[in-house]
Design brief:
The complex is a heterodimer. Chain A is built from four helices and no strands. By secondary structure, chain A is mostly helical. Chain A has a single domain, classed as Non-ribosomal Peptide Synthetase Peptidyl Carrier Protein, Chain A (Orthogonal Bundle). In chain A, helix 1 packs antiparallel against helix 2. The longest helix of chain A has 15 residues. By secondary structure, chain B is mainly α. Chain B has a domain of 199 residues. Chain B has 21 helices and no strands. In chain B, 36% of the residues are buried. Classes of the chains: A mainly alpha, B mainly alpha.
Chain lengths: 76, 529
């Protein structure tokens, strides 16, 4: 989770990613940010997030995103 | 059969009448038959194309489902004996098979679209190369472009990709799938619906709901008002200016550009209002396609609010899959090593953005002007993305971000920028478009407008007055709509005021409609796609 928070923090230092759960709904993360985050996650966790998992539910908070990473790692 | 023809009005009355008379379980079947009858009037051969798309997608959807089930059964039956690696290998094998079927469906259906829509464009380009080498030119092929083929093909391909991804199971009833693909109000100009959004209300049994019916009818009237009173009137001046670039340059290009922005908005959003309104009269919910796009403060925001269902389609089925596919992630890695962290991170976004906007351009038409238009949109988006930190610093330093004046400036800037890009759509020729754009700066003589020239564009004083009032109504409507549904707001007004509004709207279409309902001179712009 630490590493994920760091990845997100680099993109938007002004946002508290530990508490914010409206990253997509409030348009904090745009599509360009999402792609950057996915590429970084791929590097950091060695997990590929498929396109169909790019949904508001999975990207609205760091917690949800981390759960997605864990699920994908588990499926792998 | 255009929305503005008498034939369509009669057809609609019969369909709606029958819809609420017949037993509810037959309602979706009636809509299916009506949709095919509606499409038949645009040419019987069109029925063939749409049927091929429906049948191929239906069977491939079932095939994808059967592969899924096969996997489930196999894994269940061999639960105790398979190792983790065996399971993974089996899943990969099934996934590869599913991918092949999906690819077949996409290539087959997008192939039909590509052949019909782009063969002559390809031939024209090949011929220009042949001419250089003094070779014999190829002859053009005479294809009839089925109305709405780009819309229904994209909608159907969205469905099959979702089935492949396991978002939902395939529709088992071919008739129901056929209705989803061919639902007549949205068949020829969208919105591009998603199966999970539309299907539930499309197949549901609907009792007559007077509020829904009345709201739907009001929206249909509003759509006709936009189309017949505004779009079909202003188009005369737009055509006069853009068809005669030698006569009308300089300030007239600016006038044409702004007029075209009004025409396109009134035409396309008007058509979508009619679509959503008809669906609502039938109790069916169709997704919104516009959220006051001309109030956008940036081009990125504009594309989030204009033709929304097309934008999200490109995002979900091209931009994201392309950006996060393995080769793209590898490209990102190698670019980071070669060109540094900053460029490496942006590589997938850049490539995917260019691909999406190239596709968006060519989706709109098989000519270079649309491709250049699409690529320029992508270019402006990427540049604004790069300049964002600079904008943020500027806003912070001068505290202009939230002032009304600055927001108004942003809205006008975005409107002019988008209108400038649309010059490529107006003149349909890349060279002429750039020349005319340039003439706005080199030959800008505002006095020309006050020498009676505006009255030589095919519109008289009363046309301009009607247009001015029409545009004021459009802007007022959008301003009021920001705080909630206009129809809801009207519905709580005293009956006398309410009915006055409805009657005025109705008669303004009859009296001020440029040609009136029944005169098919101008089809909707987006019907061509």
């Amino acid at each position: 989770m630490e590493a994920l928070l760091e990845i997100l923090g680099e993109l938007h230092p002004e946002i508290d990613f530990e508490t914010n759960d409206r990253l997509i709904d409030d348009k904090i993360l745009d599509s360009f940010d999402i792609i950057t985050v996915i590429a970084e996650i791929n590097d950091e966790y060695d997990v590929a997030i498929p396109a169909h998992e790019i949904t508001p539910e999975n990207f609205n908070s760091a917690k949800a995103l981390y759960e997605l990473i864990e699920r994908l790692l588990d499926e792998d | 059969m255009l929305f503005t023809s008498y034939g369509f009005i009669l057809f609609l009355c019969v369909v709606i009448g029958l819809y609420y008379i017949i037993p509810k379980r037959f309602q979706w079947k009636l809509l299916l038959v009506s949709s095919f009858v509606f499409y038949y009037f645009s040419g019987w051969s069109n029925l063939l194309y749409i049927s091929v798309t429906i049948i191929s997608t239906y069977f491939i959807g079932l095939k994808l489902d059967s592969l899924n089930k096969k996997q489930e059964i196999y894994l269940k039956e061999n639960k105790g004996t398979l190792s983790r690696e065996d399971k993974k290998a089996y899943k990969e094998k099934i996934k590869a098979k599913r991918w092949k079927w999906l690819l077949l469906c996409l290539i087959f259906n997008l192939g039909i679209l590509a052949v019909i829509k782009y063969t002559n464009f390809a031939i024209a380009n090949i011929n220009s190369i042949f001419t250089l080498f003094k070779m014999n030119e190829l002859s053009f092929v005479n294809f009839l472009l089925p109305m709405g083929i780009s819309f229904y093909t994209f909608q159907t391909m969205g469905y099959i990709i979702d089935v492949y991804r396991g978002k939902y199971g395939p529709e088992k009833n071919i008739g129901k799938l056929a209705l989803f693909v061919s639902f007549f109000p949205q068949l020829i100009q969208g919105p591009i619906s998603r199966f999970d959004d539309l299907s539930l209300s499309l197949y549901k049994e609907h009792g007559f709901d007077s509020k829904n019916f009345s709201y739907g009818f009001q929206r249909v009237l509003w759509g006709y008002f936009k189309k017949l009173v505004i779009a079909d009137r202003i188009v005369v001046a737009v055509l006069e200016i853009t068809k005669n670039p030698d006569t009308y340059d300089g300030i007239f290009v600016l006038v044409g550009m702004v007029f075209y922005a009004v025409q396109l908005y009134a035409d396309f959003t008007g058509g979508i209002d009619i679509t959503i309104g008809i669906a609502q009269m039938l109790g069916i919910k169709v997704k919104e396609n516009f959220i006051r796009p001309y109030f956008s403060k940036s081009i990125v925001e504009y594309w989030r609010r204009w033709h929304i269902t097309m934008g999200t389609w490109f995002k979900d089925y091209i931009f994201y899959p392309l950006s996060v596919c393995k080769p793209m992630l590898n490209l990102s890695k190698s670019s980071r090593n070669r060109f540094g962290e900053k460029i490496g991170k942006r590589a997938p976004v850049y490539v995917a953005t260019i691909a999406v906007w190239f596709t968006t351009g060519i989706w709109h038409g098989s000519s270079w002007n649309f491709i250049v238009w699409g690529l320029l949109n992508g270019f402006v988006i990427l540049v604004s993305q790069e300049l964002e930190p600079l904008y943020a610093k500027f806003h912070q330093k001068f505290h202009v971000g939230e002032t009304f004046g600055f927001r108004l400036f942003q809205v006008i800037r975005t409107f002019l920028l988008m209108s400038s890009l649309r010059i490529l759509d107006c003149y349909r020729d890349v060279g002429v478009s750039f020349k005319m754009f340039g003439s706005m700066f080199t030959k800008l003589n505002i006095n020309e407008l006050f020498a009676g020239s505006l009255l030589k564009l095919g519109l008289n004083i009363s046309d301009y007055i009607v247009l001015l009032i029409g545009v004021i109504i459009l802007i007022t409507f959008s301003l009021v709509q920001r705080s909630g549904s206009v129809r809801e707001k009207i519905s709580i007004k005293p009956a006398i005021l309410r009915y006055t509004i409805y009657v005025l709207l109705f008669f303004s279409i009859i009296i001020f409609g440029a040609y009136g309902i029944g005169f098919d001179s101008n089809q909707f712009i987006y019907n061509q796609f």
